[in-house]
Amino acid sequence: MVRFATRRAVHRALGVLGAMGVLSLVFVSAAGASVFAATTTANQSTFSSATLQLSATTGANNCYSTGTGAGGAVSANSSVCPAGSPVPAGPLSSNSSSSATTTLASTGTANASTADLASVSCGVAKLSDAESTTAWSGTGPDTALVFQGLTYQAAGPLGTQAVTTDGSTGWAETTVQYTNPESFTVLAWFRTTSAKGTITGFSNSQDPVANTPTDSDRALWIDPSGKLDWGIYYSGAKRDELTSQAAVDTGNWVFAAASVGSAGTALYVNGSLVASAAGVDPAQNYSGWWSIGYGYLASWPDIPTGYYFSGSLAQIAIIPSQLSSAQVSSLYGDSTLSTYAAGVSALSPVNYWALNDSGSAAYEGSVPGAGASATLVDASGNGNTGTAEGGVTLGASGPTTLGGAAIALNGSTGYVETAKSYFNPIGISEIAWFKTTSTSGGTVISMTDGQTDTETSDWDRTVWLDNSGHVVYEVWNASLQEVTSSGTYNDGHWHLLVAEIGSSGQRLWVDGTLVAQNPSVTSLVPYTGYWHLGWGNEVAYSDPPTDNFFSGSLAQVAIVPSQLTTSQISTLFNSGSTAGFALDMGQLSPTSYWPLQDSASNICGTSEITVQQTVAGTNTCVYPSAAGTCAAPSAGYLVTGLGVRSMTAPIAGTPVTISVTMKLSAASPAGILGLHELAYFAFGTAKSSTLWWAQIAYPSAGSQL
Amino acid sequence: MSLKHRIRKNKRGLVASLAAVAALGMTATFTLGGFSAGITNSASSFNSATVQLEEGNGTVTCYSTGTGSGGSVTASNTNNTCAINALVGTLSQVPGGTPLSTTLTFTNAGNHNATVASMVTGACTQATASDANGYVGSDTSFCNKVDVTIANTTTGAADKCVYPTTAGACPALSNTYNLATLAGQTFNAVPISVLAAGATATYVVTDQLDSAVTTNADQGLAATVPFTWSISQ
Fold first, then answer.
1. B interface mutation test: which of A27, A48, A75, A693 has the most B CBs within 10 A?
2. Does the complex come out with an ipTM higher than 0.85?
3. Residue B46 within any structural domain of the chain
4. How many CB pairs (< 8 A) connect A and B?
5. Burial label, A210 (beta-carbon count in 10 A; 0-12, 13-18, 19+)
6. Which fold has domain A375-594?
7. A318, CA 20 to 30 Å: which among A170, A698, B61, B65?
């Protein structure tokens, strides 16, 4: 009876708990073996993501957006292609055009919805000078510009790279003029098998190839017997020429040191003194430029059979003192680049061309013979060109995460005015990278009804830093509307600001984070105005800066005709290169886009270009935009005007072939012929959300002018 | 009646019985005729009920027996290898793409009402997807990037949303609720339907690669969460 009563109680309990889900399960589970149960497990429930991938083929060179070949890990999905070029190698001609072809293909499982190509930066390749001194009345680093048959990153001494010159066209012109270098030592590593050519020279002609100098000496060359010569023209119109006893054209790396000064002249080969002369002081007094791989040497006793050096050059330095034998021997004993570089640096060099350059870095300064330029390209293709006014310096260093260039503004006169006016732009985003340490504020972007920095009666859409470094965004909707960041950003670091006004309200973002907003401000008092960079009218504002002008650097400024989403802003902020930022910006269809990568010389404004796409046998001209096949290149369409252009996205099974055709303008100055033009071509695809993209950039690709 | 009297009476009965047996023996031996009646309860048996679960997505049907409709029932009555993909995802999902949804239909194919039902989600595991070109994203938190909701769409079911809320309609997909937050949970209360014999319940699992937090590093990845559905007597 006791057992029966217990069973009956349990049965009643089950009935009560049956309607109490959780407790029932607990109970049943505890007595699981005594109940009937049925279970199915869908253990193949899997969610899988697609892949958005891009490949580019130029000739025999294949590049992939992953940067790792077909397949592999996907992270940034934005790669730099080290080989191949979507632009013709040149030399470009003014008589005929030349072309290059790149085939783009989708290699992932998802098809892109948009694609664009970009060339928002253009300059000429340079060889960097690591030093920046004012010795002998020089100014700044003595950057060298590359001509014709000079190539990069051959195997060098000390485990580093070297440049190679072809012995017939390749050399480098320097950009800083010096007054009478005296008492110095030239250091150079070289390797050659040719008994000819000048390693370094000095003359009063910046371009001794095009313009024969009247003064030239301080030259280190290989004479017709293969020996190393050091020539100094000194007081009394005398020539002093030192010659090594042994030939140096052995194909081995040779370390040369040559000096002149109160101790006379001295020539060292591989750390040992091989020739010297007393009384050769001072050297001839004239102003001139160094040259690398070429030197004019007419009338010298053992002039080379050709002025162009044939071989490899590395680690050239100019030391403003005569080194002792012990010092030279010590440098020769350095077996690694780091110890050698430290040894050179300890000697306070005036110049140090490591010559391990990749050939992808552009010179943004004034190119000899190319004329000055203050034009700032609008890469949106809408022609809202900027003009640098007052204290604006082109070619400053760009944002840390992007690289590239920027403009530097002096905080008192420098700003950028723009070409076109716009009526009541609303539903917009103002975008800029900025860097400043100013404690008196300054304007980043503004709109006023005047084109210059004066005489305005309407102004708003202004973004500035106040004196404390807060970012402030002001608009006018019949009353003053300002939103201000709580944080300060005048810390000397690069920051990305996005200021938006439209139906989503007045919003301000810094470095991808929403820092201030007023959702109630969605419309503005309409007027027609111009955009300004680096200046604004802050009269009547509640938190105006002391300085209307910006003091610092600006880069990648744009006006986008939409209010950006969090993910779109994040994409821009996380772009890892100038090419990537340009391609991401292209997805946003900006009305104006000033990358601010411009050269102080109109170096790329003489290269005519067309870009054509071919999809399934159908040709369309991408630049200039036109149906069908592109017409021949013309003066109206230059590399500087290409910017970011939409193109058809390659999809699975349907690649897109891009043909770039270039021609040198008839108006090109002779001084630029032979320089290595860098057009920074890049291709990108994206899904409509822009969260996924695939990009391939060609920073080293260029055309010889 | 005294004890002595009862013994005497029994002795008389024994004699009579022996006589009757002898008479019957003589009848069998000599085929003497007579009437008789008997009943055999050959259908007498004790039958157990059945609690069986059938799961389908319109293409694949699974049974808790693991052997198809009907068939042998083991002690566990558990099918751990149901080939239904509740998350649908094929190698085509991109950020913010069209949300995927799967309708799962559950039937108590047995003859006994269930009193308990549950859905249990296992751990979310990440793996590489089978892109033919072998592209694999480097993100290690892919489970967090797949937004998910689960709704009970059975006619008449109370409180439709199973996940993320357990009452009312499910919210729109958002990254607040994803496969990582779904994983490792037990749902055994309303709105999980407790199936009577022959009754059917439907659930819709909706998922999407999130449109805000996904990056390029989320390409070519797979996230797997086992779904275990149970009913009990």
1. A48
2. no
3. no
4. 241
5. middle
6. Jelly Rolls (2.60.120)
7. A170
